[in-house]
Specification:
Radius of gyration: 20 Å
Helix content: 25-40%
Number of strands: 13
Strand content: 25-35%
Largest sheet: 13 strands, mixed
Order of helices and strands: HEEEHHHEEEEEEEEEEH
Distance between the termini: 46 Å
Length: 293
């Protein structure tokens, strides 16, 4: 209870907007037992790494993992006050960009324009015994695919650690081209975790690949009852429906986007006379690296 009360403060501001989700008229498919807040850190060409706010809603029968920043962006577009704030934030970025002293600095500032942060939405055990994933490779169209809900083949270790006041234990696995270290706590009764990670006897509190490219870390948890909504439509007027695709085909398209960003960065650096020798292109790879197998 002590940990939940502490974490409630971390999630208080975010919780105030949960009720606004009903404006989208998405169907409710379950009710939450816990809402978990994670920091998701991943490679970014212009800032080395980027960290965004993600949510894991754990229900009675299923769970949903998504970007809170993306949800907040779409919610702001539904009110005059929100639209005005987005306009103000956009103008601020343009003003600072105009004062940039070089092309690279300008590109980094423009990367701060308000918008979608992460498009992926992962439903676990929906349909039953399946993962249902909605995502975008280029940002112009949204797609979906399903796969079996199997979890990872974890090896539980003896190491322990305290995270946010929770007693955690270490586990390791190799999954889809990466080696992972995770910390889970049996004090939260669920076998769930962020992204597609699951299958341990307690909530996965932290998971990192051993190359330190990707990291997901719990920042707060609240025991709250609220609907879990299923996004049955996109927010794109020209492409309102999710299009079917295979997992590996979607990942191949996402990898092309990564590569385009890296090539753009290299061109930018060369234009201002800076070396690109220290840019490791292998770092800019999808979390699931098995798309070419």
């Amino acid at each position: 209870m002590k940990q939940l009360l502490f974490s409630f403060f971390l999630l208080l501001i975010a919780t105030q907007s949960y009720a606004q989700e009903e404006v989208f008229n998405f169907p409710a498919i379950d009710t939450t037992r816990f809402v978990c807040q994670y920091d998701y850190t991943y490679p970014s060409p212009y800032t080395d790494t980027q960290t965004i706010d993600m949510r894991l809603e754990i229900g009675l029968h299923l769970s949903k993992f998504y970007s809170y920043g993306t949800l907040k962006y779409f919610l702001m577009q539904t009110t005059p006050e929100g639209k005005a704030k987005l306009k103000e934030m956009t103008q601020d970025v343009f003003n600072r960009s105009a004062k940039a002293t070089n092309v690279l600095e300008r590109a980094r500032i423009m990367n701060q324009l308000p918008g979608r942060e992460e498009d992926i939405i992962i439903y676990k055990n929906y349909p039953k015994d399946s993962l249902y994933i909605q995502d975008s490779a280029s940002g112009t169209e949204f797609m979906y695919y399903t796969e079996p809900y199997l979890g990872q083949n974890w090896e539980i270790q003896t190491d322990t650690l305290t995270i946010l006041g929770f007693h955690c234990q270490k586990a390791t696995c190799t999954w889809r081209g990466r080696d992972y270290e995770a910390w889970f706590t049996a004090e939260i009764p669920t076998n769930d975790g962020p992204m597609k990670f699951s299958g341990l006897p307690g909530l996965i509190v932290k998971v990192t690949d051993t190359d330190q490219d990707y990291r997901l870390e719990l920042k707060g948890i609240e025991n709250i009852k609220k609907p879990i909504y299923f996004n049955n439509k996109t927010f794109l007027k020209n492409s309102p429906d999710f299009l079917p695709i295979t997992r590996k085909e979607l990942l191949k398209r996402k990898q092309k986007t990564f590569q385009s960003q890296v090539r753009m960065l290299k061109r930018t650096l060369k234009s201002i006379g800076k070396s690109t020798d220290d840019i490791n292109e292998d770092k800019y790879n999808c979390l699931e690296k098995d798309y070419n197998q």
